[in-house]
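retry 2 of 3: previous attempt timed out while embedding iron/sulfur cluster. Reduced batch size to 1 and resubmitted. Inputs unchanged:
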Amino acid sequence: MSCVKTDGVQVEKNSAGLDINTPEIMQPRGFAMPPKELRNGGRVKANDVVPKGVYLPNNNIQTPNMTSPEYVQLSTAAALTLGLMPGGMYNCSCTRCLNILLTYPEGCRANCAYCGLARHREADRDYADRNFIRVDWPSVPMKQVAEIVAKQIKEDGETPFHRMCISMITHPKSDADTRTVLKTWTDHVSPDDVAISILSNPTTMNREDLVVLKDMGTDIFTVAIDAATPDVFDRTRGKGVQSPHTFKKYWDTILEAKDIYGDQKFGAHIIVGMGETEYEMLSLVQKLVDLGGHSHLFAFYPEQGSLMDHLPSTPRDQWRRVQLGRYLIDYSGVRVEHMKFDELGRVKDFGLPKAELEMIIETGLAFRTSGCPGKFAEDISACDRPYGDSPVSDIASYPFKPEGAHMRKIRQQLDMEKPGESYEQGEEFDEL
Ligand code: SF4
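retry 2 succeeded.
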């Protein structure tokens, strides 16, 4: 990306030479149907290798035949924190959220264009070997996961995890299996020790499913609506890519979650930079706040192997403005109507006096990963998803408190540098 300035707004051009990810360039590529024998997990089922404990993704060996509810997949960060795989992460010793993903040889039956788990990858890669939000997801027996955390609490009086979240996928068994996985968890770990979130797949769910999950101990129910407008939704995860989802069903489920879970106990995941404007994105954030919920934002990243892997990630100036705008709406009482936007829908004024805005920027909270809260504060997410939407070299969502050079970099991206405190390329790594 290169930086230019237009009309007082710092603008980064993406690799298409544009300063925003417009609908015209954010078009998914085409795909071919996999051969019949490779569909629905054909290779894994035909070879039927018996799983033995933890499976670390490896596309060079035959993937075992693993399925929920007995097996689940964990984010790399969760597997590292549990001690199930070796390694470390830049500037984070662990994650505070145990992200669990249902798993099946057939995988997710949807085909969302930005997602590494999408159905079109069946010929290329077995489900348990696919990358998702930039990382591998090891497969682990669910009982083993619950036993490790229960042991941590019993022996140490605490666990690194502030929250456990089950991510559903689109599969005929996912509603029933989510309940079984949740039961395995609560048989070992009390919701009083580790709060529970569900990242739902509304397409296969009904109202009763939401009620049952709440009765089983779920604290926060979120909907991965991902796309900020019906147009972006249809193009990236609806009929445009032969995927079964509709914006209406997702929005209706958010309204049901409001009724069933109540204020501050529901929310939506949204990806920034798939063709919507900053005004459209922040209007959706406002709508969720007005309902009593929260938004959890991700920067678009061209996931390898997805139908959008050829497209530019969200320009950082666009991303920072949306991150800051979202924080102000969610936690500082600012409304989208107080903000000013230019003709391309970019934020030109955040609707707060400069001194107040400066104080909020300086805390760095707006630029951290957004998600369900943990035990620190309402505006510090347990779900820190280390490097799930960017590489370490160009961090979008900060899984740690940004300070020093990281803050100077953020300020440069916002075109709000402090006098005499400019950012030099790569200087954050000199501070290690
Ligand atoms: S439903 Fe979720 S997991 Fe499945 S392809 Fe879409 S985004 Fe990926």
